[in-house]
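VanZ-like domain-containing protein
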Amino acid sequence: MMIMHFKRNAWMGLVLMIGLIVGTLYKVNQGQSYFLVDWLQQLPNGDKLGHTIIFGVLTFVLNLTLLGKSVKLGVSMNLALLLVGLFAVIEEFSQLFIVSRNFDLLDLACDGLGMWIFYRLSKRVLADGDPY
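Tokens:
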């Protein structure tokens, strides 16, 4: 029963996080102002901080939702890291084709850093059991 409650809360968090990301991407890809992006740009390296946090939290919530599931692709890989990593690469490279955006490998590195940090945190939460 506790696992079911845990998964339901994780799914709700995942849906909210995906909604935030899709909304943000839509606005910035259109070249429109968005409060979260505007606020982050006021901070030193705010863009990089935003990449680290957004992709990190997405990895955290997805890994909790999937209960740390791994897939075998020659080697065992965490499914959340794989999916968010693919999304990060596709999203960053898509910026090469969007006039209002700029491709930046450092953004991709910050995505990876956030993914790794928050993946490690999610493993600790899963190891401790149901936090709800």
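The chain has one domain: 2-128.
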